[in-house]
TrEMBL record:
Organism: Pseudoxanthomonas composti
GO biological process: protein folding; protein tetramerization; protein transport
Protein name according to UniProt: Protein-export protein SecB
Gene3D superfamilies per the UniProt record, alphabetical: SecB-like
Keywords, comma-separated and alphabetical: Chaperone, Cytoplasm, Protein transport, Translocation, Transport
Gene Ontology CC annotation, any one: cytoplasm
Role, per record: One of the proteins required for the normal export of preproteins out of the cell cytoplasm. It is a molecular chaperone that binds to a subset of precursor proteins, maintaining them in a translocation-competent state. It also specifically binds to its receptor SecA.
Keyword check for Heme: no
Pfam family, one: SecB
Signal peptide: none
C-alpha cells in the first residue's frame, strides 16, 4: 500500500479512494448588533449580566461538501434593561472525501466548529467594542466535549425509542 499526501498529512490510499478534509470557504453568514437603550444605557451604572447561546447547523451541499454554521448570540442585560444583543453566524464550507460516516460526523461536530470559532470570537469582540462597550473575550469552547454529550444524548434517545417500540409481553 502506498501513502498519498493530502494537506501535508499522510493518508493511506485505499482502492483508489483518497481521503481528504478540506476548508473550502469561510464566511460571515449573518451578523446583528443592537443597543436598544442607547444612549441612556451608557449612563446606567449597573453590573451587566451576560447570557450566551451557542448553536451549530450542518447542511449537506453535495456528496462531499457540507456547510457548517456556528451561531453565537450574546445578550447583555443591565438590570431590567437590555444593554446589547450581538448575534454572529459564522459559516464554512468543508470538503470531506472518502471518509466513513462516523468520521464525517465527528469532524462536522468537532473540527469544523473549532476552525470557525476564532472568527466568531473576533467578530463578536469587534462588534461589542464598536458598540461602545468594554471588550468581551469569548472563552474557549470544548467542542469535543459538546460532541461527546451529543453522542450520549443520541444514544439515550435511541434506547428510549427502542424501549417504546418493543412489543409488550404476553400475559
Amino acid at each position: 500500500m502506498s501513502d498519498e499526501t493530502t494537506n501535508g498529512a499522510a493518508v493511506p490510499a485505499e482502492a483508489g479512494t483518497q481521503q481528504a478534509f478540506t476548508v473550502e470557504k469561510i464566511y460571515v453568514k449573518d451578523v446583528s448588533f443592537e443597543v436598544p437603550g442607547a444612549p441612556g444605557i451608557f449612563s446606567d451604572n449597573v453590573a451587566p449580566e451576560l447570557n450566551l447561546n451557542l448553536n451549530q447547523r450542518v447542511q449537506r451541499l453535495n456528496e462531499n461538501a457540507f456547510e457548517v454554521v456556528l451561531g453565537v448570540t450574546l445578550t447583555c442585560k443591565a438590570g431590567e434593561k437590555t444593554a446589547y444583543v450581538a448575534e454572529v453566524q459564522q459559516a464554512g464550507v468543508f470538503g470531506l472525501v472518502g471518509l466513513e460516516p462516523q468520521t464525517i460526523d465527528a469532524l462536522l461536530g468537532t473540527q469544523c466548529p473549532s476552525i470557525l470559532f476564532p472568527y466568531v470570537r473576533q467578530l463578536l469582540s469587534d462588534l461589542i467594542q464598536a458598540g461602545g462597550f468594554p471588550p468581551f473575550f469569548l472563552q474557549p469552547i470544548n467542542f469535543e466535549g459538546l460532541y461527546a454529550e451529543t453522542l450520549r444524548q443520541r444514544a439515550a434517545q435511541g434506547e428510549a425509542a427502542l424501549a417504546n417500540s418493543e412489543p409488550a409481553g404476553n400475559a
